[in-house]
What we know:
Elements: H1 4-22, H2 24-44, E1 47-48, E2 54-55, H3 59-71, E3 77-82, E4 88-92, H4 93-123, H5 127-131
Amino acid sequence: VVSLDEKMATERQERKEERFVENSDFFKSRKIEEIKKGRDAEYNAILVTSDGLQFKSDLETIIDVKTLIEILPDGGSFVGYKSADGSYNVITKEQFQTAITEGIERKTAAFAKEAQLVAAVTAATTLAELEAIVW
Length: 135
């Protein structure tokens, strides 16, 4: 015996699936935008390096860090660098290089994940498959 709530839920899902078939491009484009927002949130979040230091991921910070890498001598450090958590630290040239390297790795991983999810969106043939795709 199927309850009224279960029957109504099944009918709602069937109607959703019918709308998906009629408008799959629309639903897929919305899902791709959702994925892009997830990607951006992930690689724009504060970067905590393997050294435990926190760096902002905005363009100004990246340019500052790259400039510091260029001007600091090998073995040199920047005294009083304000990290993303608001603390002031002595950060070595090597730690700045680590931040750039790990930031690039994080961004690369985010784009790779996005590519996999977009491929899954493209391949989705039902609304249930599409809704199962999450960042």
